[in-house]
Amino acid sequence: EIEDWYTWNQTAVRIDQIPFAAAKYDKISVSPEETAQYFERHVEAYRTEPEIKVRYVRFSPSAFRERVTLTDAEIREEFDQNPDRFTVPRTVEARHILIRTAADAPAAAVEAAREKITGILAQARAGKDFSELATQYSEDEGSRAEGGFLGAFRREAVVAPFAEAAFALKPGEIGEPVRTQFGWHLIKVEKVNEGRSRGFDEVKAEIAARLTAERARNLAYDDAEALADAAAGSADLGQAAAARRMEALTTEFFSRRQPAAGIDPAAEFVQAAFQLPANEVSEVLELGEDYYVLQIVEQRPARVPELAAVEARVRQDLIREKQTEQAGQAARALLGDLKAGVASDPAAKKMGATVETTDFFKRSGSAPAVGLAPEVVRAAFELSEREPLPAEPVKTSEGYTVIRFRERKPPAPEGLAAEREQIRSRLLQQKKTEAWGAWLEQLRQASTIELKRELT
Length: 456
Fold this sequence. Notes:
This protein is α+β, with helices and mostly antiparallel strands. The protein folds into 3 domains: 2-34 and 310-409, Chitinase A, domain 3 (Roll), CATH 3.10.50; 51-70 and 208-300, Roll (Chitinase A, domain 3); 90-194, Roll (Chitinase A, domain 3), CATH 3.10.50. Helices cover 42% and strands 19% of the residues. The protein has helices at residues 2-10, 32-41, 72-81, 107-125, 130-137, 160-166, 200-234, 237-243, 266-274, 307-339, 344-350, 374-380, 415-445; strands spanning 12-21, 51-59, 87-88, 91-100, 149-154, 178-180, 183-193, 196-197, 249-250, 285-287, 290-300, 356-357, 361-362, 394-396, 399-409. Strands 1, 12, 13, 14 and 15 form a 5-stranded antiparallel beta sheet that branches. Strand 14 (394-396) and strand 15 form a beta hairpin. Helix 2 (32-41) packs across helix 10 and helix 3 (72-81) packs across helix 7 (200-234). It is flat. It starts with a helix and ends in an 11-residue tail after the last helix.
């Protein structure tokens, strides 16, 4: 299975592609009658979503900062009561080399990885530059290009075995191999930054800024809560806001997929608004950095609009359909010529198209020289020297593409050894996921599920 997966994923092919972009066919016109008929055939595509109009008051904590006053005594008290907040922890700057093994890898694989990292350690202690060794051997994609450099990190920022080894070393030292759930590591410490306590003068401004932000946020919430309580009693957010000299704004109609303009965060606002019953005033809602109180003031149900309201969109959709049809007709005609034995270049030239030859590409990527649609990549791997042409042109988001197989390149056998453990781990996780899913489905089939709404 490992070998099959490696071969499947690493095999590369090269093809000719002859694209027919739908947008190229720009001489299409449609009549009002055709537009109306298209609208009737696709009427559900133009059905609108339910829409609502919302009145809201926003409370931004930043607007309350000027109402906050702080004394030096309060700042000092915060410093004295929370000494742990103002310490700089000990950190280590290090490089590492990782040889990956799965946490549940067999003993033979673990031992092979240990022998490999031991050999690398011998090179390092013989004077070979550690960063060069990391670039050459490390299997940590995140740090290999940087010579294994991890930057400065605290003890709790890394897994325990790694932390224990790294924080026991002195600058310039290379430790013995250490195993974590990621594999075997070599660690070289470059610098140790000792921890220290920060003085009051150093953190005074920081404390003041934090306390100001906290108190401004509390003031904003208190005002929002007072408005929500008053509006709930009158069922009129606008009236309650006016009585407190607050500005209540009203959105235009919006739907779940087309949020109200000028609202940030839009997605959270939409979700909260659509959960409200009509005319009911919300509780205080924390959306992004601000607090809101909302009330739905008008609703508009889903509906099919009159053609006149969406005619421009319908006409454009119809033109696009006709463009795509023409691209498909041209692509099918070209493919017919190719199957009849006509060479690619003259056949394409006759259709006003161009043959593009790709570089080798794999299933998981795209050709470097020519961007390939995902549908083209999938279709390319179904072709072969015996069957160099597809049954039909490949439909893409841009139109149609005719492809012809040129060459297949199998993966290098020696590459399997380097990837074997990663592939094994990936396949094992995939099987676990599939087994879990199958068990859940079996449980569903054998169970009776009841949905009960809790009443309060």
